[in-house]
Amino acid sequence: MNYVTVDAYRIGEFPFWFHQTWTTSLQLCLSLVILFHAVGLATFAAMAIILLTVLCNVPLAKLQHRFQTKLMTAQDERLKRCGEALVNMKVLKLYAWETHFRTVIEKLREVEYTSLRAAQLLKAYNGILFWSSPVLVSVATFGACYLLKVPLHANNVFTFVATLRLVQEPVRSIPDVIGVVIQAKVAFARIERFLEAPELQHIQIHGTMAYVSQTAWIQTGSIRCSLVKDLDLLPYGDRTEIGERGVNLSGGQKQRIQLARALYQDADIYLLDDPFSAVDAHTATSLFNEYVMEALARKTVFLVTHQVDFLPAFDAVLIDNPNTSTLKLIGVYLLIGVGSTVFLLTRGLSTVILNMQSSRSLFSQLLNSLFRAPMSFYDSTPLGRILSRVSSDLSIVDLDVPFWFILAVGATSNNYANLGVLAVITWQVLFVSIPMIYLAIRLQKYYFSSAKEFMRINGTTKSYVANHLAESVAGAITIRAFRQEERFFAKNLDLIDKNASPFFHSFTANEWLIQRLETMSAAVLASAALCMVLLPPGTFSSVSIQNQNTLANYIISVERLNQYMHIPSEAPEVIKENRPPPSWPSVGKVEICDLKIRYRSEAPLVLKWISCTFQGGHKIGIVGRTGSGKTTLIGALFRLVEPAGGKIVVDGIDITKIGLHDLRSRFGIIPQDPTLFSGTVRYNLDPLAQHTDQEIWEVLGKCQLREAIQEKEEGLDSLVVEDGSNWSMGQRQLFCLGRAILRRSRVLVLDEATASIDNATDLILQKTIRTEFADCTVITVAHRIPTVMDCTMVLAIKDGRLVEYDEPMQLMKREDSLFGQLVKEYWSHSQSSESQ
């Protein structure tokens, strides 16, 4: 993500600054020729100072390049952790790990600050070097004139000073040019390494191919298989807008959309990576019969599955193996030069210090706001939009805003100081300066109205690029399987063009303004020639306005960060006056009273008047068709969504009266999507470091993971990559079981935890839960009927309403029982599979 949002941006800046390299060199050469005619051999003193300045800059530039590389590496690591946390924010909230992950990211930011501080200090020293060089050149030249007996008359002094002031701004821009060149060079090198990374080799496939992944990949857009009932429930049918990653769809609905997408492809070969695990038994059977056995009857189908009931229908089965005097005046000039240099040094260092403080404060507030945001924010906000804030916008605030602020303030102060001095000496200059200032302000306001919008549009369109990139990376396998790389690549280029358009238009608008300011300045100066002989060149320069405009454009990034620093927050993490006892919940009794849930204030109810009681120590099964509201009920228990009415009481405490951390940290959960984080085995089981290695090994033994980890040389320090992709789905789920055992909560929730694992792993999980949580309240949301058959009570939900709640055997005796229908469908499916 950093390659697109930061590195590409730095490379995009480079062409604009590239011309400064040769124009500055040309201006310096021409100026030296003019100086030679004015002061003769004393020009060599000026050349010596310029060469000395350049030579002093060489080691600084090398150091700046080194620290810039370190900065980008640290930024990569911080952004990787940010992305990992933001994608899995629901899991962090369920486990009450937000504070820990926020602390981890803040520590990475501190590492980034070390390189940022060094890079900015070097940039400040560069600025001091080049900003003080005109004064030092003047002192050296006048000193050489004194020693060489070169007469200093008004004509040659005026020529010297005027020429020096003409090249003053180009010389002072050299540090900015060097900074941009170094940043672009580092960005080029990073992107080059990425592009030279090993690529996948081509595989010979005869015919077209379609792919359905195990974890549903859903793009932002609308729906257009067994989805008829679901489409009836959606407000706009197949035109219903889907959020990023399909957040407003259930797991089963996402999977069926995937299946429909593959079927539309009409390919020759279909690769199905366990797509039926996310739906209930009846739906799985219907999908298998209608999709695989009928719609794909004449196609080549590769099905990866742990549902062995489907295997008899296949032609072949592959089993995977897991292996006052002139001298006095020169002295005064020297003192002024030294004072100016000290002032520049103080200004540069204070800029870096204040920048570090403000940057730290901004990031801390932004991170806190993002981690405290409710899940509804993440359900409605594309990930790319958030990542663009914590990457490119933050980079601009770190590297660009402070120095452009100093340049804008310095240039503006310099202009007004010059005018003030000249107004005292020759008041006639006010007839020129006042109209000039008025016209400049009018032009600047006119420019700002469009330039700010250009930068806002640039920030918004950049988030579209980041979002499309994140979406494409997540679905890379599916995109390749459908051979849609060209389409996604073309869309990416189109989004980049749309992003680049306002970016370059902002440069064009800036040039438009500068051209008019320069033309206006020339016209006024020509009409006031009498006064102009007394005014130094640059008094009416457009540099001040240009710096102000550039700063205003960069301030848009601060504005964008500020938007996300004031996101409406969740309830407090801790309410000191309402903290539950340390032993809570001690019994595990859960009372749900007239519960109503809606995701937004204007949205319809998702859960409607649910009332029931889970006795302490009971095993509760929650069943229902896909999209009936089972997972929403679990979300309400953890307060991922606040009740629109009613309440949930656990061991006599209303959960809405206590802090979110106190609530979530006291419950255990094995989520629907087993999530692992980049790190080690130890870190993924116990990220808060609350348990000893011996306790972790004991838990691994209970989860049947001990042998798999002992086979690895690193043991508990074995690597877990991002998303845990180097571990199987079943092993990831057993990791989640290990977390639950380590937490030892009196209330354990299983949110369709067995949907994506094979029967053997399911048996391990169920056996371990019966043993380790025998006296705990266990709430199980499940598609597999055997999982809930031995529950104390079963709760059935249909269309967000509780339709029945009783013992499983009692429900099976009822003719109109929803649970009874699900049981019959499951056993009917099993018997038909056995007969095949």
UniProtKB/TrEMBL annotation:
Organism lineage string: Eukaryota, Viridiplantae, Streptophyta, Embryophyta, Tracheophyta
Subcellular location: Membrane
SMART domains: AAA (SM00382)
EC category: translocase
Entry's transmembrane regions: 34-60, 128-149, 330-354, 419-441, 522-540
Domain of life: Eukaryota
A Gene Ontology molecular function term of the record: ATP binding
Presence of the UniProt keyword Transcription regulation in the record: no
One Pfam family from the record: ABC_tran
Keywords of this entry: ATP-binding, Membrane, Nucleotide-binding, Translocase, Transmembrane, Transmembrane helix, Transport
Species of the source: Linum tenue
Catalytic activity of the protein: ATP + H2O + xenobioticSide 1 = ADP + phosphate + xenobioticSide 2
Family membership noted in the UniProt record: Belongs to the ABC transporter superfamily. ABCC family. Conjugate transporter (TC 3.A.1.208) subfamily.
EC number: 7.6.2.2
Protein's membrane topology: Multi-pass membrane protein
Domain spans labelled ABC transmembrane type-1: 1-183, 310-535
Domain ABC transporter: 116-347, 590-824
One term under GO cellular component: membrane
SUPFAM superfamilies documented for this protein: ABC transporter transmembrane region, P-loop containing nucleoside triphosphate hydrolases
The protein, known as: ABC-type xenobiotic transporter
